[in-house]
C-alpha cells in the first residue's frame, strides 16, 4: 500500500504543479469572468439614465410620487418628469435633456393606448419602469384591495407540468436546463484533461524506458493503480477549484442580480451527479491508461484518444431531441451506453423525473465498466511490458496468455 501511495503522490504532484495544469485550471474561470465583466461593462456604458417625460392629458395621476424602486449600477432608477404640453417636451427631447416622453390620452385608462416619442428607442427597462410608475400613481390603482395590488405588482409565474404530473417547472427555474448542460461540459473538460495527462505519462515512460526501472520496484498492478488514482485526483482538484469559483461567482452575482439568488440545486441531484461522474471518471482514466500502454508513440495515442472523446459529446448534438422526449427510447438508450451515460442521464434529470430503477441500473453499468476498464488497463500494461517496442492490438490484449 505504501508503494501505491508513493505512486499516487508522484503522479498528482507531477501534474498539479506544472504550469500547463495551472493554466488549464485558471483559464476557464478567467475566461468566464472576462466575458461576464465585458458584458456588464458594455451594459453599464450603454445604459441611458436620462429622465423620461410624460404628458397626462387624462388627469388620472394627481400629485404623482417618484417611483418607489431601489436603484443599482446595473438597473438605475429613471426619473419621470411631468410636462404640460407636447411642445415643451419636444424641445427638451431635441436638446437631449430627456431620452423620450410618453403621452397619456384623455380617455386613459379606458383607452389603453399610450404614445411614446423618442429620437432613439429607450431600453425595455425604461418602459418597464414607466409601467410601474403608472401603476403606483393611478387613482383607480390606489383604490384596489391590497391582495389584488400585490398580484399586479409581482410578475406572474407560469408553471409547466407534464401530462402525468411527475414533472413541474416554473419559469423562474431556468437553471434546471442550464445546470445539466454546464455540469456535462465541466465533466468532459476535466475527464479529458486528466485522462490526457495519464495517457501522455504512460507513453512517455514507455518511450524513455522509465517503466523498466519502475517495474523492478513495484508490480504492474500497483503501478497502474497508483497512476489511475493519482490522475483522478488531478481531475477532482480541477473540478473542486472550478466549483469553488462558481460558488463564489454566484454569491457575488446574487448581490447585483436577484434572479441569481433563486438558484437552488437539490441534494439528491448532487448525490446522483457524484455517483454517476465518479465511476465514469475511473472508466475514462483507465481506458486512457490502456491506450497509452498499447501505443508506442505519444502522437498516435493522442489521435486515438481524440476519437474516444467524440462519442461523449453525442448527447449535446441530440440535446433538442432529449429535451423534447427525455424518457424516449433514444434518451434512455444513451443513458445506458457507458460513454454517453453520464451526460445523458444528468440532462434527462434536468428535463423530467427519471425513475429510480433506471438511475440504479445506470450507476451499476458505469461501475461495472469502470472495473472492466481497470482490469483491461492492467492487462494491457503487462502485455506492453512483455512486448516492448511493439504496438498491441485489442485482440492481443484480450488473448489468453500462455
Produce the secondary structure layout.
Elements: H1 2-16, H2 19-46, E1 52-56, E2 80-82, H3 86-94, E3 100-104, E4 115-118, H4 124-137, H5 139-142, H6 146-153, E5 159-161, E6 168-170, H7 175-207, H8 210-215, H9 220-256, H10 258-261, H11 267-294, H12 298-309, H13 314-317, H14 319-324, H15 329-336, H16 341-351, H17 356-386, H18 394-398
Parallel strand pairs: 1-2, 1-3
Antiparallel strand pairs: 3-4, 5-6
Helix pairs in contact: 1-9, 2-9, 7-9, 7-11, 7-12, 7-16, 9-11, 9-17, 11-16, 11-17, 15-16
Notes on the structure:
With 402 residues, the chain is mainly α. The chain has two domains: 103 residues, D-Maltodextrin-Binding Protein, domain 2 (3-Layer(aba) Sandwich), CATH 3.40.190; 218 residues, no CATH class. The protein is built from 18 helices and six strands. Helix 7 runs antiparallel to helix 16 and helix 9 crosses helix 17. The chain is elongated and about 95 Å long. The two termini are 29 Å apart. The mean pLDDT is 76.
- The side-by-side strand order for the widest beta sheet comes to 2-1-3-4
Radius of gyration: 30 Å
* Coarse structural class: mainly alpha
Order of helices and strands: HHEEHEEHHHEEHHHHHHHHHHHH
Please mark out the parts with pLDDT under 50 across 5 or more consecutive residues, or reply none.
none
Instruction: Tell me the number of helical segments per DSSP (H or I, 4 or more residues long).
Output: 18
**Based on CA inertia axes, which overall geometry fits?**
elongated
* Mean pLDDT across residues: 76
| Main β-sheet description | 4 strands, mixed
Whole-number total of structural domains: 2
Q: What distance lies between the first and last C-alpha atoms, to the nearest angstrom?
A: 29 Å
Number of strands: 6
Query: Which strand-content bin applies to the residues?
Result: 5-15%
Residues in helix, % = 55-70%
Amino acid at each position: 500500500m505504501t508503494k501505491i501511495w508513493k505512486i499516487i503522490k508522484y503522479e498528482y504532484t507531477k501534474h498539479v504543479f506544472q504550469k500547463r495544469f495551472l493554466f488549464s485550471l485558471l483559464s476557464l474561470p478567467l475566461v468566464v469572468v472576462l466575458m461576464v465583466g465585458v458584458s456588464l461593462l458594455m451594459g453599464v456604458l450603454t445604459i441611458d439614465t436620462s429622465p423620461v417625460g410624460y404628458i397626462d392629458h387624462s388627469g388620472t395621476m394627481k400629485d404623482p410620487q417618484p417611483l418607489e424602486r431601489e436603484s443599482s449600477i446595473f438597473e438605475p432608477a429613471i426619473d419621470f418628469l411631468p410636462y404640460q404640453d407636447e411642445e415643451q417636451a419636444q424641445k427638451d427631447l431635441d436638446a437631449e435633456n430627456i431620452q423620450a416622453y410618453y403621452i397619456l390620452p384623455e380617455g386613459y385608462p379606458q383607452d389603453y393606448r399610450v404614445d411614446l416619442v423618442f429620437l432613439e428607442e429607450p431600453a425595455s427597462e425604461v418602459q418597464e419602469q414607466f409601467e410601474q410608475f403608472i401603476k403606483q400613481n393611478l387613482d383607480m390603482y390606489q383604490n384596489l384591495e391590497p391582495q389584488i395590488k400585490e398580484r399586479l405588482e409581482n410578475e406572474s409565474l407560469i408553471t409547466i407540468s407534464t401530462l402525468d404530473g411527475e414533472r413541474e417547472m416554473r419559469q423562474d427555474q431556468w437553471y434546471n436546463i442550464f445546470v445539466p448542460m454546464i455540469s456535462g461540459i465541466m465533466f468532459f473538460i476535466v475527464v479529458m484533461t486528466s485522462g490526457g495527462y495519464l495517457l501522455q505519462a504512460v507513453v512517455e515512460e514507455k518511450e524513455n524506458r522509465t517503466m523498466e526501472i519502475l517495474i523492478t520496484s513495484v508490480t504492474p498492478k500497483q503501478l497502474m493503480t497508483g497512476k489511475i488514482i493519482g490522475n483522478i485526483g488531478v481531475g477532482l482538484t480541477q473540478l473542486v477549484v472550478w466549483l469553488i469559483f462558481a460558488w463564489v461567482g454566484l454569491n457575488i452575482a446574487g448581490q447585483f442580480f436577484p434572479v441569481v439568488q433563486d438558484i437552488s440545486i437539490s441534494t439528491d441531484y448532487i448525490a446522483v451527479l457524484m455517483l454517476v461522474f465518479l465511476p465514469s471518471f475511473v472508466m475514462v482514466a483507465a481506458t486512457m491508461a490502456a491506450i497509452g500502454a498499447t501505443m508506442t508513440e505519444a502522437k498516435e495515442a493522442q489521435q486515438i484518444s481524440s476519437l474516444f472523446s467524440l462519442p461523449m459529446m453525442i448527447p449535446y448534438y441530440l440535446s433538442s431531441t432529449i429535451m423534447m422526449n427525455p424518457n424516449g427510447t433514444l434518451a434512455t438508450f444513451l443513458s445506458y451506453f457507458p460513454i454517453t451515460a453520464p451526460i445523458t442521464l444528468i440532462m434527462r434529470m434536468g428535463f423530467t423525473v427519471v425513475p429510480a430503477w433506471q438511475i440504479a441500473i445506470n450507476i451499476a453499468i458505469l461501475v461495472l465498466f469502470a472495473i472492466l476498464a481497470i482490469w483491461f488497463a492492467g492487462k494491457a500494461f503487462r502485455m506492453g511490458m512483455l512486448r516492448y517496442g511493439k504496438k498491441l492490438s485489442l485482440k492481443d490484449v484480450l488473448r489468453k496468455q500462455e
